[in-house]
Queue: 4 jobs
Job 1
Amino acid sequence: MKKIALSLALLTTTAFARPIPENERITPLLQGKREVTNLVEFAKLGINQAQTSLDLWSGSYWPQYQGSLGVRYRDPSFISLMTSHEQYDKFKELREKSPLYTYAGRENILSPAEKYDSIVGDSTMTLTKYAWELGEKNAKLGKVPTWRGICDGWSSAAQMMPRPAKSVTLKTPQGTDITFFPEDIKALGSLLYARAQENVIFLGKRCYPVVGVFTGGCDATNPGALHKAIANRVGVLKKSFNADISTSSEVWNYPVKSYKFTYYNVFNEEESSDFKNVFEVFEKKHRFSKSGRRHERTYAIVGVKAEVVYADMREANLLATDSINEDKALTKTYYYDLELDRNFTILGGEWTSAAPDFIWAPNDKTYPLSDGEVNGRPATEEEIRKAAQISSKVGQPLSVIVEKLFELSK
């Protein structure tokens, strides 16, 4: 394991950090709690390793190249296209060859959007149309970028909404039974958060890498900010936050499940669970990497190996129930060093590996509300239909419907 010498390939993608900027202060993540910033206190509190108390469920990001929530993921014909990773035009062609009326008696294999439109009595299928239009709008040279989807919605909904454990059967206004499987319910919850959540807690900025061998990308999340965010949000509060783990212009959001910090000496790579065994006093500064960029109050520097486990996405499955057995996890190992003052308070740091682009969290004090519900939640069939059509035009399912599905699925 070599953390000090960077390869040429890593130099082109690794983001370097400066002392923590104002827009990466972690205070908004703390819900009014005191910020723990000192590595000595980290050890006393036992937060060099921890996991969230949330039940972070895995789900699909409903990629646009497959038709987003419009894809009939339970239909064998569509499954074949998904398995072979066909592009948007193939999914659209199949859908056009398979009109909705041909699924009479087989409503349970319709797409999440089609099921939703049917339940709210929207004969114009507004949400379904919206889902398929996403592919049309985002096609480039005949192809839709495979990363485009609603991972932002999934990563938030997995934190804010309970796991849909079982299937739910509802009747359409015409009296037809339609079963919403856990994957359908997750899809609608994810879309609600993707299109209607507001006031998210955002640290850093989205970066667009510059093309060039030595130009690198952007500053990414400051290592000091990330270290404190993980320890305070996950270790102390037992909550989670999202990280864009991509180092490119693509965005891949994942919520943090757990982490483990191991400290190491930046010169000899000796590792320890106790930072005091391996930190180096910041003297003879020319010996240290990027010494001219260090915080002016830096007294010591210590390396960190952060093993972060994220809840992972997966393709929608065909099960009638859902449990942690269906979840996936993604582990990322980050290397960076921390700049510490004489009290061992974190001042900032520098990356020696690829880094998360930015971090953010859904706002615990707000709940997504669709445009059709801003003047009050609909109650009658007619109110629901009208509100749904208004909201579906901008890709928002009604929160009153989504909440009910999650409640019944517990």
Note: The radius of gyration is 24 Å.
Job 2
Amino acid sequence: MLKVKSKPKPKPKAKPKARPKVGVVGLGNMGGGIARNLARAGLPLAVWDTAPRAMKPFAGHSNVTALHPGEMAGCCAAIIFVVPASPEIDAHLKGKSGVLANADARPANSARLALYDFTTSDPAYTKRLARRAAKKGVDYLDAGMSGGAAGAAAGTLTLMMGGDKTALSRTRRYLKPFTNKIFHLGPSGSGHTLKLIHNMVCHSCFMATVEGGRMAERAGLDLAQMIEVFNVANARSYASEVRFPKHILNKKWDAKSRVYNLHKDLGMAVALGKSLGTEVSHGEATLGFLKKAIAMGMSEKDYALLYRDFEKIRKTRKG
């Protein structure tokens, strides 16, 4: 009896990926955490980074597509830029393949594209970018972040927002997977202004705690005990509660931010303060110390090392 071979069943066609609703440009310590939270939330996501290796971890996600920012502009409701500073965003906005030129490719019934600037930048530059975007019918919102890489990974960032409140309300759902609190502060530039003030205070507190720690050790006191006391007393701060216990007392020196970043932020904050005619002497003192660290070649070093190398930095005449 002849056996009739049954025809193999055709393999089911893979479902086409849904059109991305939100894009993330820049997949470093901060952007990578933000994108992972969006992917876990199941949102149709587009990602891009100038370093192809940064996009590899997203290759296996069915709801994630690799797209150039200009391509994102044609399909996404919101694009989040998590890049070093305004010039990098500026470069992505320009030209025929840029975001602004391709925002017109969106379906006719689509709401306005919203761009989120998650950099720490000069508010004046931010306002220029926002004006340019507005001319193309694109909303531009500046968002200062607080929470660091750990907050981005855990989905607990705090955002300080500037820009159109209606645009924020329209696209807020794309921010929820990686945020705890969102504060709308006012018009364009407001978010970046408060972020600079925030960072000036934060970094100055860190350096004050570093000085206190060095003083305690010089006096024969235990640094860990000093931090323990601070954390149940009035000298407590983010530096004492997080940075010292997690990155300095254990000598891991892994705060995951470069000395360069602190120097850049303090430089902009001090310049902003002076332009406003306000007192920034504590910020200037912190900036002066960071200039010495930069002069010593510490630009790319983790800033937790500012404690370890404090005496060397203090004694240098450079900066």
Note: Residues 190-218 form the longest helix (29 residues).
Job 3
Amino acid sequence: MQIEAFSELFPLFNSASPETIDWLLSIAVEHDYPSDRAVLMEDAWGNAVYFIESGWVKVRRHSGDEVVTLAILGKGDFFGEMAILDESPRSTDVIAMSPVKLLSVSAQRFIQTLFKDSQLHHRMLQLMVRRLRQTNVRFQLRHQPPAIKLANTLVYMGENYGQPSEPGTEILNIPLKDLADVSDTTLDDTTKIVEKLESKGWIKVESSQQAMYLINEKQLVHLAGQI
């Protein structure tokens, strides 16, 4: 992968020096995982940071007998950084939701790179703060109607991971249970809302292609903003 393509694909590196990116590309290891394969398991010690070159993963936590999806990440995002920064076991699983292509950089080399490139260090802090802000948004939405919470999730997915297409912005056709978890809604509410949004022509689900198309994003953004 060329330096320009790498920095364009991964927002984390858009302010890193060309020397940093060239170094990372030389040491990065490629991984391919099929859908439903575990990429990282809970309580495993963090030994690398992973960057999503293509595909989708979900971050989940075991809560008693239940498994709760905490986040869904797509192309251009990264994970595994928290475990190496605080040198503790991972607290979550990461599971491939579709065929996934990843790049990994060992913990030791990634930390060395952060120390050498202050711009990269600063950019990582910015993106981690953005994730914290998104968590705060979800907390602020906890008492809002399910439709508003679900619309916020779809808008976020579209803005951060969506791909332009003829029908509309394409995202993964997220399983309803996972969509309900990350939206903090019940499975029953999520099922009804998705059906209603599709009947209104705001979204289109193509199960055979594992795709959901956000057709009327303007209306989804308006719904998400009713807080």
Note: Residues 138 and 183 are 8 Å apart (CA to CA).
Job 4
Amino acid sequence: MRSKSREPLQKTNVNVSKHVSLIIPEGESKLSCIILAYEVLLAANEYYKMHDRTPVFKVELVGEKKKNQVHNGLFSIQPGKHFKDIDKTDLVVIPAIDKNFDNILNINKTLINWVKDQYIAGAEVASLCTGAFLLASTGLLQGRQCSTHWQATNAFRQLFPSVDLTTEKLITDNNGIYTTGGALSSMNLVLYLIEKYYDRETAIFIAKRFQIDINRSSQSPFTIFLGQKDHEDKEIRNAQLFMESNVSEKILVSELADKFAIGRRHFDRRFIKATGNTPAEYLQRLKVEAAKKTLEMTRKTVNEVMYDTGYSDTKAFRDVFKKYTGLSPLEYRNRYNKEAVVN
């Protein structure tokens, strides 16, 4: 079934209300994500009222139960409406969910179908952080780009291999479907939506009020490469451990394949299947992660860090570092090294 064409987004001073369904899934949702999204959306309304303009958003919390327990029962959320009572909405916002993804997706099948139906009927859909798991379960992300929290990358790729996961991007925008990176960076997507539905002036005011960096475009500087070892390929896991133990060495992939008595092409295929990276990419990411830690914790110069991680070409080191962090080595050190900040 084809979706209806997207209506033009709300423009300034047009007296048309847009209904926003901030959904509360069954299971563990991130309370902070829900509260922040709710407050930031309402703050845009308040700003319009201050300037004698009609607010754009009508925000409602919608779910299946009258009360939803979160954080192991320490808190509860009370959705104002059952989602089945919402005949039409303009924007569905999906908050972050907790780590037990399979269970949460299983108990929210009816809600997932409702989200899909709303999109087909013309609504836009935005997922915040790991809310991308619920969004992907609708099938709406097939073949599309998507972002989520960098720490959930491996789990997401295992569940949704046909989705183009681009966690280096802070925000993805594809025909009325929006996703964003993790944790507090979700508020950058909320700002993005405020700018689209309201205007730039309102988004800037809200950014200043909540002290959100409105110009942030990547979560790469915050990503920690953990590697993917949750697989059954023993030889590939041993190859990963060897790489991690020899980060300062120059390792050729052909020599690595020979070491584990696997043909080069077969080694590449098995490595990609197990880790989601080519062997060369995995080596680069290990070296960049080692360089990041050294830049954060020591007084070593960029050149010293470069040599420590097996690079001898300054440009090559700088290019690969920026590829995975979005920053040059010097910019990274100045941002995260305590002594560099103090000085």
Note: The longest strand covers residues 18-24.
